[in-house]
Structure prediction request, 496 residues.
Amino acid sequence: MNLMYKSTRNSEHKVVASQAILQGLSSDGGLYVPESIPQLSKSMDELAKMDYPTLAYEVMKLYFTDYTEEELRNCINRAYDDKFDTPHIAPIKAVGDSYYLELFHGATIAFKDMALSILPHLLTTAAKKNKVKEDIVILTATSGDTGKAALSGFADVDGTKIVVFYPKDGVSSVQKKQMVTQKGSNTLVIAVEGNFDDTQTGVKAIFNNKDLAKEMKERGYRFSSANSINIGRLIPQVVYYVYAYANLYKNGVIKNGEKINFVVPTGNFGNILAAYYGKRMGLPIDKLICASNENKVLYDFFETGRYDKNREFVLTTSPSMDILISSNLERLIYQIADCDSSITRELMEALSSEGAYEISDSMKDNLAGFIGGWADSNEAKETIHRVYNEDKYVLDTHTAVATTVYNNYMKETGDKTKTVIVSTASPYKFADSVLEAIQSDSVPAEDYDQALMLKDLSGVDIPKAVEEIHSAPVLHKITCKVDEMEDNIKEYLKII
Prediction:
């Protein structure tokens, strides 16, 4: 029996995994969720003996049930190969009394590589399985990391094109350079005059434009998504939570069945949602600590049960978390509403029309296990400085937010549960802010000079991703307004 996927806004609409991956977003605007969350089928003793690709298969086969074993293993083996700079793929580092799950060892030095290395293979396999004749146009909004990781994954993949929109002034210098220097005859990168929420809303409107979809089909194209709204992006993220637990057990840090906490720096909510899925699968997780920056819409939600995006949008030193509309929260809303799609649809309509919604008391009760916390840029800066001085370990700005939130949580609760802090990006990706935190004066103006200084301070080699963009030419120079996004796509696809 295949595990079916339903829309969060219409439980009657069901598809198999490959169809959900192909479509990205349901036709009713909802997100695809598994009809039930499967349980881990191997013991922790068995999982602890597996390398990353083998464990990835054991997790993903439970969700992607219409893929054959050969198809799924092929996708996994092509994804988790030597493009990662360590055979562990997602190593855990003990630093002080904490454990850091390093998810930045892939081609673009951010956690998005963990899922976007495999999504192109899942997607092209799905197209063949479903006899899709159209070219697939990957349409993505990014707050910085998804864009480059998606571009890297889909560049020159036959039968695909990829269009990435990013907020013009809302990403770091390195993030921007990584995107605008991207090679590939099928790639297009466009800066949007607005913030990430404007960009993401524009992309969703394009997805929901039925007339455009008809025009594209006539010209031999169909849209799909590389954002975490795509279930093929979300499920691979579950793997590294299982892998982290299995490795702590293997190394004698925890006993089998001992509960641990995870702290996740969060913007669009996909990363921590993957941990929640892992918990529902039987992974022994106690608290899921959701760490926000000044754009603390998620913190306020967990504190009050009210989600309200009607507030000032703050540009911070952790730009991948500068988000006020957390798309993946819809999947959690569906779960805590006891999988009632009518409730989810009503709340999402309220978010669209009023910019806010409030959940019921029973739904609040179903949030047990989630903790919200937030830290501002100055606190994160102090944390980077302190951890470097005490442990000679360099945090990026997003991981520093998570570390600050965890330290505050510890002071407030005294919780001694072993805790894994999810490290989502290499400090090299935000070298200017990191260097300013470690030594506030004499930070070089040029990106590569900053990288050289960071290498001297950290003792960690400059990643290949940073070396590559040092002298790379700018290939993508288009800037547009939000209401011009669709026209740019039509022009690119020559359907205007």
Notes: The longest helix spans residues 231-250. The mean pLDDT is 95.
